[in-house]
Amino acid sequence: MDRTTGRRITGIAHLRQSIVDILTTPLGSRLERRTYGSILLSLMDAPANSITRLRCYAAIASALMNWEPRLRVTRVGLDFGPDPGQATLALEGDYKGRSVSLSAALPLRGAA
């Protein structure tokens, strides 16, 4: 189900929604699934340097490997935005045997 319209979605649209949900759900915030989500948002307040970039890549890859079995991530791109605590995510991977490129200007902002 589409989280904004309530209509049925399938395929790449469902995958994209799932990826956004996994990456923007803070780890430990779901009561019955404490391991669901990622630490990505908590990293957005860290300094925009190569160490933070590497930690973001690891957070993205591990969260998607754990929670999105339909996708095998082959490349992760992360561009820090002009303002502190903002980033744009680009993913490439294999989805059901097909090579896909997903790019999304996710509103990745630091935890408030």
Commentary on this structure:
With 112 residues, the chain is α+β, with helices and mostly antiparallel strands. The protein has one domain (11-107). Helices cover 32% and strands 29% of the residues. The chain is built from three helices and three strands. It has helices at residues 11-24, 40-43, 50-67; strands spanning 71-80, 86-95, 98-109. Strands 1-2-3 form a three-stranded antiparallel sheet, covered by helices on one side. A hairpin with a 5-residue loop joins β1 (71-80) and β2.
Characteristics:
single chain; 112 residues; alpha+beta; three-stranded antiparallel sheet; 3 helices; 29% strand; IraD/Gp25-like; Baseplate assembly protein
Count of individual beta strands: 3
Q: How many separate domains make up the residues?
A: 1
Order of strands, main sheet, comes to: 1-2-3
Instruction: Indicate the proportion of strand residues.
Output: 25-35%
Helix percent band: 25-40%
How is the biggest beta sheet arranged?
A: 3 strands, antiparallel
Broad structural category: alpha+beta
Order of helices and strands: HHHEEE
Name the average pLDDT: 82
So what's the overall shape?
globular
Distance between the termini: 28 Å
Task: Extract low-pLDDT stretches.
Answer: none
The radius of gyration is: 14 Å
Number of helices: 3
Protein name: Baseplate assembly protein
Domain IraD/Gp25-like: 13-91
Set out the fold topology.
Blueprint: H1 11-24, H2 40-43, H3 50-67, E1 71-80, E2 86-95, E3 98-109
Antiparallel strand pairs: 1-2, 2-3
